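Q: Hi! First time doing this. I have a protein sequence and I read that you can turn it into a structure. Is that right? Here it is:
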Amino acid sequence: MDAVLDDLAQHWQLYAAIPFIAALIGYVTKRVAIEMMFRPLEFVGVRPFLGWQGVVPRHGGRMAAVATDLLTSNLLDVKEIFDRLDPDRFTREIEQPLLRAIDDIARDVLAEHHPRVWEVLPSMAQELLIKQIQASSPRLVRELIVELRDNLDEVLDVKHMTVQYLTRDKALLVRLIRETSRPEMAFIARTGIYFGFALGIVQSIVWALTKEPLVMPIFGAAIGLFTDWLAIKLIFVPREPVWLFGRYRLQGKFQRRQAEVARQYGELIANEVLTTANLTESILHGPRSDRLLAMIQRTVAAAVDQQVAMARPVVSLTVGGQRLQEIKQAAATRAAQRMPETVRHAQAYLTESVLGPNVATMIEQRILKLTPVEYEGLLRPAFRQDEWKLIAVGAFIGGIVGELQVLLMLH
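A: Yes, that's right. Below is the predicted 3D structure, encoded as structure tokens:
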């Protein structure tokens, strides 16, 4: 024991440095683990094994599916959101671009599919026909919007849309997880310092007693492994508050921030995912877009039939049933093609009055009602994927630094 005390007195600076070096190991391994979760967005290295891609972007499709399942099953009812859509207000918002679109579509379709009749019509007759079509268009648009609103599930696959956007835009998925878990990431880094320092004290005592070169790398690896594992666990457990001495609350870091996370998550989904542009794109070009086209075809066919009702015998003779059907089909196709441009003029109304704050508020309120296990599902998949690799990297880095400590102590 005297020899140990003499060694401590002679090299006290080195022994005092061990806990601080251990704290540094703990912090560095945590920061590396955090960055490895999110970076790089694309694989860097030589496939399949020599290289790395961030855990979140690498498993983006799976994580997006998990997040979307939670979103669509517990957090969001898109139909309830769209029930706020006022067909009259929407029609007024797009009235002018709608009339211009109707003018272009009617002239192009008639000139293309029945040029002889169209060309021989006097200009006044052509304008009168266009005006008649335009006059009935707002009512038909309102009917289409009502049908679309009442049958939204038939034309919009929210799960497909969300998975598609989160998978395609890896940076968006990373931002969604990173922004809602920023305090947890800082907590992980801090715990590396605290636990590393505590284990460093034990490490210095063991070194003083044994002078065993393996002590440093073993402890370094243990610090990296244990503190990584423990920090991740402390984010989520205990799920329910545990009170010590009636005053001190123990609860997972992420679990304690449910109200804050609910607000952030709602805003990110509303502003980045379920936007007017994304929903419009999905409705028009998603897996159920053929059903929207069928709705448009029915509406356009009704409009054409209404215009020719008074002159059906003449139309049948001059145009013919087959040509009339072609006109309906062409008009419907052109109307679908012009829809994104036309709807764009109602984007402010849709964002401010239908989507936007309504989506954010709905998600926030429903996250607050989730059970601790359900709420954990917002973030836990990000850590569960390849979690063992992150911990193993922490242990590896800790072992390397421990070996450097040995060299420092021996020299």
